[in-house]
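Example protein
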Amino acid sequence: MAGVSSVPTSVVFLIGMLACLLSGSALLQAEDERTLVRLNFPKTDLRDVLAFYGRLVRKPVLMDVQIQAWVTVDREKELPLKEAVELIRKTLLESYGIEMRDSDRGEVLVTWSSDPKYPHHSDAPETGSRRGSFNVNGIQVRRKTVPLPEPEGSK
């Protein structure tokens, strides 16, 4: 029969689904390229920075329980999403010795670096309260002020 395809319907369906997934991925990538982020995390608990990072990359972030650090990731100007993600990773590694790597299960694993070139470091926590903010596509988002515990013996 002329003009009738011998390709099974299931193969055509799978090819169509793959095309939809790829176009959806392209849409997400285009959206990410338009997203601008301003980072303002002065002397912030690492867990707060990593929670924000996880939202940016849309992946779960798993942190080694041995890590307790206060970090500063701060930029006055807005950055494209991809640059903001790289800035967080680079700052944590080079300034604090905190390594981030992607697992084969789609998670981000966070540990102290074993490379002596990147010594472990933490900022001194602020006294009183901590506050950080970030800006995504011109919308300023502030984290709630969280009182810090009183040092032992201060009462």
The CA atoms of residues 4 and 93 lie 59 Å apart. The chain is about 35% helix and 25% strand. The first strand starts at residue 36 and ends at 45. The radius of gyration is 22 Å.
